[in-house]
UniProtKB/TrEMBL annotation:
Descriptive protein name: Uncharacterized protein
UniProt domain Multidrug resistance protein MdtA-like barrel-sandwich hybrid: residue ranges: 135-253
SUPFAM superfamilies named in the record: HlyD-like secretion proteins
Annotated CusB-like beta-barrel domain residues: 265-338
TM regions (residue ranges): 23-43
Alphabetized InterPro entries for the sequence: Beta-barrel_RND_2, MdtA-like_BSH, RND_pump_MFP
Transmembrane helix as UniProt keyword: yes
Membrane is among the record's keywords: yes
The species this protein was found in: Candidatus Wallbacteria bacterium GWC2_49_35
Superkingdom to which the source organism belongs: Bacteria
Keywords of the record: Membrane, Transmembrane, Transmembrane helix
Protein family membership: Belongs to the membrane fusion protein (MFP) (TC 8.A.1) family.
Amino acid sequence: MSIDENNGGQKSEAGAKIKKTSWILWSVPVTLVIILFILIPVIQSKMIKAGAGKPVYVLSQGYGKVENIFVKTGDLVEPGRELCSLMATEKDGSIPPSDSTEAAIEVTVKTVAGKPFDDVVELPGVITAYTESNLSAQISGKILEFSIKEGDYVKKGDIIVKIDKRDYQIAFNRAGAELEFAKSEFNRSEQLLKSNAINLSNHESKKNDYLIKQAAYENVKTSLERCEITAPFDGIVDKKFSEAGEIASPGMRLAKLIDISKVKVNVGIPEKDIAHVRKLKHIKFIVPSLDNKEFAGEFKNIVMSMIDVAKAYPLIIEVDNSSMELLPGMIVKAKIVRASYQNAVLLPIFSVIPGDDEYYTFVMNSGRAQKRVLKIGSFQDRNVHILDGLKPGDTLIDKGNKLVADGSKVKVIN
């Protein structure tokens, strides 16, 4: 065998040994990975089982401020569930200087200003007549005259309806004659009694007859008077329910009369606003159907019976209506001033950010966004009254307020 053949054989043997060694070196880590992949869940499962029924404490790895807690006591969580968010801070709670490479968020800012503000609540209401009366027949008979029309103005005492009185006039005349005769007989009986010409029993009979005839006369007289129905007050004929020629009967409605020289405004007031209203002497309101013209009326009273459907109490406002502009049935919007402020903070609605259980916004503080939780009051137009959380002079982040978070680096571009 030659030297070359020996060398070739040695090289082949060496190569085989190298390949074998490489395969062993490569297979060892793979095997370890496979083993760990199989064992880790088993170990975790055993750890969980070993800790079942016992609290497991999650420890912070540094200083920080808890921003949000995403679970509550008793919630069931699974592996990978986010429990809370933590912002890293210094030991004293201050935010550490950020990496100079942090990108600043571009925002616009404006200074919060205070101004006078009336906390006004607008409540719907309806106008009603100051006085109204249904005119009804109290006797039976044919309606002879009923010439007024709906919308006519009448004065107190004006005749509205005439009912045929001929039968009542005859009865009245007869009752009058019978009364005169009974009176004459009673007077003669008294004279005879004084001279003992008749006994007391006969005298009492004459007396009773006289009293009966007197009552009958008054009854017929009243019926005769009821043949003419007059206006009980100055007002307007709102509705007619009958016409001339019809037969009237007791209780039959003939017309409705209303007085609108003054009117009432009936407004539903929520329970929480009653205390504010009691302090008022005058209340303003607008009438949409009159181009939102504003009127003012006098606060009269609050009816103590709640309107069940609206969960509100009727508030009565009395208004002069000599111009006759206000008509029953018109809808109004009453303006109730609950409180007045001299230096109130008002924000546009879009500057207030709604959270899960809070409202907030952001101000700029030392080049960074700072979250402010807000206590809000009433909404008016497109603004909201801020009761707490902002004060005049604060630098409010305007545009870009929904792009920042508490502590974000910001750059003012206005």
